What we know:
Helix content: over 70%
Structural class: mainly alpha
Distance between the termini: 63 Å
Number of helices: 17
Order of helices and strands: HHHHHHHEHEEEHHHHHHHHH
Largest sheet: 4 strands, mixed
Shape: globular
Strand content: under 5%
Strand order of the largest sheet: 1-2-4-3
Amino acid sequence: MTSSQFILSLCLGLLVLRWLAATALSNLNKRHVQAHANRIPRECEEIMDPPTYARSVEYTLAKARFGSLEDNVSTAIIIAVLCLKFLPWSQSVWTQSFGSGAWAGAGWLIAVGMILSLPDIPFSWWSQFRLEDRFGFNRGTPRLWILDRIKMLALALLIATPLLALILDLTRRIGPLWWLWAWALLIGFQLLMMIVAPIFILPLFNKFTPLPDGSLRDRLIRLGQRTGFTAKTIQVVDGSKRSGHSNAYFTGFGRFRKIVLFDTLISQLTESELEAVLAHEIGHYKRGHLPRMLAWSTLSLLASFALIGWLAERPELLLAFGFQANAGFAPVLLLFGLLSGAFTFWFSPLTHFWSRKHEYEADAYAVAAVGGPSALSGALRKLHEKNLSNLTPHPLFSAFHYSHPTLVEREHSMSRGFSASPSTSTPT
């Protein structure tokens, strides 16, 4: 077996292995949920009534079946694309038509990405207008769905194409350390987007309005003053025009930082519960989670570019998938994007463990900030009920797929931390 044949067999084997593991985890979780379907676990009896719990089980299983089908199709498509040599054929056709410059290479990457995303369109449609609609979450219309995808396509063409062209141009103009410059370019672009996106891009999809004056705004402003957290504004986003699900988040950083609340969240929670939810988000900021996540993302991206730079100098990689040895950097970037998930999947438990640790810390901060766990616990219970969340995920499935602890785990942590604390004073 040649080195190219070995590389192809290894990559295909890893794709299949990831698919087998994901399928096994999904089946394990479905059996675990079904085992608890006929009776609410004792620790969950106060969270949902029996009819709502039965509905959440039905929703969980329906999403699991749909997710498995989607994963089956996407994995089969990637394997077929790699084995049938579609990628080198498409590059050859594209090069004959548009040349081999940086802009042509970027166009080819965008075009292939669009072609490979075509099977996602019916899945996305079915998810929103069949699955989510069946359980009362869909609020969108077909017209809005189509407009969203047209806007996302336009943004990809306007933003991703020149960015890719610039990266490809760096590979030709700079020596072996081009990947370091490409990494720095992408980091700068991401920081710029943290400022630009909330101002120019997000409003293309949703309407953002300042939180009206009143008791809720006064309460949240006082929380910010009490915790030493300032934001440029508190805004409400019309998330209800697409979905009944709810959320809250921060956008931007420094003086550009904004607090965003979904209108569905405001309609579902009391003012004290909304204060606790915001205190949790502030907890992420005050405990330094955002800089840590940014640092981790930066280092991960650096490692990825270093690996891509190393792979780009290995012609056997291109030969393994049917490309010419001098096919350039664009195929390496595309192959990395298609195959990296087969590797990163196995590190999911580590990243999710880190994320759950952050959630516990933010919960503890919120509990101290509002003087007890009842408001945050009440908010989380309502959100789990309104969103028909799975209350009984299998621990192994949770380790691979859940970035947040389960509600029961969070409530136990909050109650232990609050009862063990000698003081409930507001954190500073």
